[in-house]
Amino acid sequence: MNCNKFYGGRIVRYKFMCDALNHLEASTLEKEHDVVLLPPASGNKEIESDEEDIDDEALHRSNLPQESESLALQASIAEPPKARSEHAGKSEYEIFLLFRTLEIISYITEQTNLYARDKNDHKFMVTEEDICQFLGLILISSCHNVPSENDYWSTAEDMQAPIFSKTMSRDNFRTIKRYFHVAENQKLDNSKIAKISWLYSKLKKNLQQFSVFHKMLSVDEAMVPYYGHHSAKMFIKNKPVRFAFKIWMLCGSDRYPYNMDIYC
User: Fold this and answer.
1) Residues contacting residue 231 through CB under 8 Å, at least 6 positions apart
2) 32 in helix, strand or coil?
3) How many Å apart are CA 35 and CA 73, to the nearest integer?
4) Per the database record, which ranges form the PiggyBac transposable element-derived protein domain (predicted)?
5) Is the pLDDT score of 138 beyond 90?
6) In 3-state terms, what secondary structure has residue 219?
7) DSSP string computed for 239-253
8) 49-56: long-range contacts (C-beta < 8 A, 24 or more apart)?
9) Which of 133, 144, 196, 214 could anchor a disulfide with 252, C-beta 3.0 to 4.6 Å?
C-alpha cells in the first residue's frame, strides 16, 4: 500500500492502515496475506517541516481515497524463513554477524583504501580487522559518552575508557575516520545519499532475510542527529531532534526494523 499523498500526519496514515485491514477482514479467501506499508512519497516538492498541524482543507472528504479503491495483494505468498529455530542457539555476536557480514566489511576496507589513494596518501593501508575494530569503537562510543573524542584515550579516572587505548591508538583511529568510505566516488548514482545507498541496501536485505514478520506493524519516521552540511538534512521545528536525517521505518511490535528509507 503506497500512500502517494501526505494529508494530515498520523491521522490519515492511521486511516489508510485501518482501511487496508478492514479490506482483508472482509475477504472470503482462506489464506494469509502479507501487507507491505511504504512511506508516502513527496514527489519533487521541497518540504522543510512536517509539523503535526492538521489542515482542514487537506482532510476534506474529496481529497481522501474513495471507498472504491482496492488494496493490491500478491497472488501467492512465500513462507518466511524459519529464522528463530535456525539461529536460536547463537550468541549475541553471532547474531550481529548476520547483519554486519564479511561482504560489507570487505567492501568498506576496499573503498577506504581506494579513497586514501585518491587523496594521495599511498602509505595508508587498512585491513578488515582494523575496520572491525574501528566500527566496534564507534558502537561503544554511542553508549559511553565523554566531552570530546580525545577523552576516549584519556587516563583520567573519571572518564577513561581503557578499551579504546588497548584496541588502537588515537592517531590511527583518526586516520581511519578521515579516509573511511563506503562507496566508490567514480561510480556514484544520481542520488543525495549515493555514498551510503549500497550499505543501506545490504542492511535492508539482511534485516528482511533473518526476520519473522509480525502481525502488528508500525510506519513512522526516525530522526538521526546530524550537525554538518548536507542537502538531505532536515529541520523540523517541533521535534526533539530538530536538525537530522529523517528515515522512514517499518517496525514490528518488538521494535525490529524490517525496512528503512532515508527521506530525500
Assistant:
1) 192
2) coil
3) 7
4) 92-263
5) yes
6) strand
7) SSS-EEEEEEEEEET
8) 49/234, 49/235, 49/236, 49/237, 49/238, 50/6, 50/9, 50/221, 50/236, 50/246, 51/236, 51/237, 51/238, 52/9, 52/10, 52/238, 54/8, 54/9, 54/11, 55/7, 55/8
9) 214
How high does pLDDT run on average in the chain?
Answer: 78
In single-letter form, the type of residue at position 75 comes to: A
How many C-beta neighbours within 10 Å does residue 119 have? 11
Euclidean distance between CA atoms 237 and 51, whole angstroms = 7
Res. 207: pLDDT tops 60: yes
209 phi and psi angles, rounded to 5 deg: -70, -35
Between CA 41 and CA 57 the distance in angstroms is 20
Mean pLDDT of 189-196: 86
pLDDT above 70 as % of the chain = 68
The closest of 241, 238, 243, 239 to 226, measured between CA atoms, is 243
221 in Cβ contact with 247 (< 8 Å): yes
Determine the Cα–Cα distance for residues 199 and 93; give it in Å rounded to an integer: 20
Contact 111, 181 (CB under 8 A): yes
- What is the distance between the alpha carbons of residues 51 and 129, in angstroms, rounded to a whole number? 44
Please compute Rg for the chain using Cα positions: 23
Q: Please list, in sequence order, all residues whose beta carbon lies within 8 angstroms of the beta carbon of residue 216, skipping any fewer than 6 positions away.
A: 252, 253
Spell out where 155-209 has E strands.
none
- Of 212, 198, 217, 202, nearest in space to 1 by CA: 217
Distance between CA 69 and CA 88 in Å, rounded?
42
Q: What share of the chain is helix, strand, coil (3-state, %, to 5)?
A: 40, 10, 50
Extract the C-alpha cell encoding 125: 593501508
Give the contacts of 61 (CB within 8 A, at least 6 positions apart): none
